[in-house]
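During the no-cost extension, the postdoctoral fellow (Dr. R.K.) reprocessed legacy sequence entries with the updated structure-token encoder. One reprocessed record is reproduced below for audit purposes.
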Amino acid sequence: MAAITVTDLRKDYGHVRAVDGLSFAVERGEVCALLGPNGAGKTTTVEILEGHRAPTSGHVSVLGFDPATGGREYREHIGVVLQEAGFDEEQNVHELVEMYAGFFPRHLHPDDVIELVGLGDKARSRVKVLSGGQRRRLDLALGLVGDPEVLFLDEPTTGFDPAARRKAWDLVDRLRALGKTILLTTHYMDEAQHLAD
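Re-encoded structure tokens follow.
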């Protein structure tokens, strides 16, 4: 069984159709990229798969769950990394990751996740002193700490310089090697080419 199945998905906002008949499947352990320009419906699609929006029509399934009705049980199996997240600027990296770990009945050790995303030397640093790239890695740590089977990455490298983008790609490659199923959105052709199965 595929980890993600999308069949004839449509999403309308009034008279605007944001997603028009999208169908695809992602097998377990695959990395899939939704590629398209801004406004193409990538984020809307991911929000439906995360259970944050209801489709106008069509069918979606993630790990056998209907995201719209899966509730807490569903959310315990997925990780979400948004385009931009807000943090308490006064907390440090370790405090935030440890707090998020407490939200999940099954989770990874915070120290292991912090090392995995390359923030080991910043574990005791307050969020307010982190660079933009370090904040994105913190976003990823928070999405990973619940040990998700499926990870959603929305525009993971937007605004990164070339060196930071390459580090992010290396991290996605490491997650693939761990057997994670990843759905990412991007408008960079080279990113989709490098990362997606």
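The chain has a mean pLDDT of 91. Helices lie at 42-50, 71-75, 93-101, 110-116, 132-144, 162-177, 189-195. The remaining legacy entries will be reprocessed before the final report is submitted.
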